[in-house]
Design a protein that fits this description.
Elements lengths: L4 H22 L12 E4 L2 E6 L5 E5 L2 E5 L9 E3 L6 E4 L3 E6 L2 E5 L5 E2 L5 E2 L5 E8 L2 E2 L6 E2 L7 E2 L6 E7 L9 E9 L5 E12 L2 E7 L8 E3 L2 E3 L4 E9 L5 E6 L10 E5 L12 E7 L5 E5 L8 E3 L10 E2 L12 E5 L8 E6 L9 E5 L2 E2 L2 E2 L1 E2 L6 E7 L5 E8 L4 E6 L4 E7 L1 E3 L7 E4 L2 E3 L8 E3 L8 E4 L1 E3 L5 H34 L3
Parallel strand pairs: 15-30, 15-33, 24-28
Antiparallel strand pairs: 1-4, 2-3, 5-43, 6-42, 7-8, 7-11, 7-38, 8-40, 9-10, 11-12, 11-13, 11-37, 14-35, 15-34, 16-17, 17-18, 18-21, 19-20, 21-22, 23-28, 24-25, 25-26, 26-27, 29-30, 31-32, 35-36, 36-37, 38-41, 39-40
Helix pairs in contact: 1-2
Length: 509
């Protein structure tokens, strides 16, 4: 008698295959890994005996589902323009968490929840490395990523200022020009920093930097509270005949700035032979030390000046081997205000709003190119720049291929908000599907190993895009035809066995 269990096992297996194919087709418009293959295997065999050659004579008991492996191949990536959408290109899974349970998914259709966390459509929080003061903290473990509108960018005190300015060469001595620049203290409060320029001689301008005196607390002078003037720095600027800035000097109390020409008398120099009325060029190195060069009956070399101007005199020491001067030898100062350097460490102390004291640099150079000029055109400032900012609220963010979420704030700054991680498994076929595009690890898959996208075989991310289902409709239709024919064949076997059984029963009649 034929065994009905054999075609019935085939019907059961084919029915499962049809269900799997139908599920694949039903999920063709979802996201992430959805395609599942159905692989058959045979059941046990019954030995009926052996042939004369000793070969076994066996009959099979039917078929069964051997395995249903997932197809972990890349799905198509399509741009959505939604900043919270993110697609994985390559291997790995997003780590998500809800109610203390961590699962893994390829679906990157995220959104921001009412409590400002990045979440899945099912409300699971996306895990990653947090950012501390704009720096990704990979040593703090995985935490839910907070990216909402409540995120604040802290204020940043100004540490550098620059302006692109022309001072009119046609101005007369005593003419002035002013330019304001807004700077910020450590609390994010703004202050108007004013640059005042006054022409003192051809190709020479004095400068003064100040903020409103009302922005500063009074100081104690001799036990008396004295308002601050608000003047932060003074000095002089020198230009050559082509209007190019050639020298700067930071004014310091008690140390007059070099400017123009003048005469002086050598003093505190050991007696010795030397020519008189030779020209010496002096250039400021800083407020109290100067580099001296020139020639007197040969190579004078370079001398280091140890003291500033005192009663119109300069004391200095000649290098060994240089020709010596005798006291009262005359010299002529023919110099610009100083060497061409950025003006650094300008202090502001005693803010009235309680902000911390600060220092900032005035960058008069962009690389080696001066930003200040003096040509015969109206004095004007074409550009200003400073690096401080007030506090700001999060306006938007974008997700980079390395998973770093960079926020843009209302104060014009950008900062890292966190970093999405990707998890990999020793055997991803061992993952268990739990619905809603989620997977959970099993003993077969091994534990998740989370890390930075683009490292250790993990894929990279595409912000503003989604990975579509990896179900291929053409392949599934072909599989559907095969499974249908197999089901029909097994059904035909059942009807055939039924007919044979009826014929066998009818033999008794």
């Amino acid at each position: 008698m034929p065994t009905f269990s054999i075609p019935l096992s085939g019907l059961t297996a084919d029915s499962t295959a049809l269900s799997a194919i139908a599920n694949n087709l039903a999920n063709q418009n979802t996201t992430g890994y959805k395609d599942v293959r159905v692989l058959f295997s045979d059941l046990f065999y019954q030995n009926l005996g052996t042939t004369g050659a000793g070969d076994p004579v066996q009959i099979g008991a039917g078929a069964q589902i051997g395995s249903m492996p997932g197809t972990f191949t890349q799905g198509s990536v399509t741009s959505t323009g939604v900043p919270t959408d993110v697609a994985i290109q390559g291997g790995g899974f997003f780590a998500v968490q809800k109610d203390g349970v961590t699962s893994y998914t390829r679906a990157g259709n995220f959104s921001v929840s009412s409590d400002n966390f990045l979440v899945t459509s099912d409300g699971q929080q996306v895990l990653g490395f947090p950012a501390v003061n704009g720096v990704i903290a990979t040593d703090q473990g995985l935490t839910p990523l907070e990216l909402g509108a409540g995120t604040i960018s802290p204020p940043s005190a100004t540490t550098s200022v620059q302006l692109t300015t022309n001072l009119n060469a046609a101005d007369g001595v005593g003419d002035t020009f002013s330019t304001p620049v807004t700077v910020y203290d450590s609390l994010g409060a703004s202050h108007v920093l004013t640059f005042n320029f006054t022409k003192t001689a051809p190709n020479t301008w004095n400068y003064s930097l100040s903020i409103p005196a009302a922005d500063l607390n009074p100081t104690l002078v001799g036990g008396v509270s004295t308002p601050q003037t608000g003047v932060l720095a003074t000095g002089a600027l020198g230009f050559d005949g082509n209007g190019v800035l050639t020298a700067t000097s930071a004014g310091t109390a008690g140390v007059p700035a070099f400017a123009g020409t003048g005469n002086g008398t050598i003093s505190n120099v050991a007696a010795g032979a030397g020519a008189k009325n030779e020209t010496i060029t002096i250039t400021a190195v800083d407020a109290t030390h100067f580099s001296v060069s020139g020639s007197v009956s040969g190579a004078l070399g370079t001398a280091t000046v140890g003291t500033p101007f005192v009663s119109g005199e300069i004391s200095f020491t000649l290098n060994a081997g240089s020709t010596a001067f005798v006291p009262d030898d005359a010299f002529t100062i023919a110099t610009t205000p100083g060497m061409l350097n950025n003006i650094t460490a300008i202090p502001i102390t005693g803010f009235a709003d309680g902000a911390s004291d600060m220092t900032f640099d005035w960058n008069v150079l962009s690389g080696a190119t001066p930003l200040l000029t003096q040509v015969a055109a109206p004095s004007s400032t074409s550009a200003t720049q400073q690096n401080g900012s007030a506090s700001g609220a999060l306006v938007s963010f974008n997700i980079g291929e390395d998973g770093i979420v960079t926020g843009s704030f209302s104060n014009g700054t950008t900062a890292a908000l966190g970093q999405i991680v990707l998890a990999t498994f020793a055997d991803q076929q061992g993952l268990q599907r739990v619905g809603n595009t989620d997977f959970v690890p099993t003993l077969a898959s091994g534990p998740a190993v989370a890390g930075i996208p683009g490292t250790s075989g993990r894929g990279t991310l595409s912000g503003g895009a989604l990975e579509l289902s990896n179900v291929d409709i053409a392949t599934e239709f072909a599989n559907l035809i095969v499974a249908q024919r197999a089901f029909e064949a097994n059904a035909k076997a059942v009807t055939t066995f039924d007919q044979i059984t009826q014929d066998t029963i009818n033999l008794k009649q």
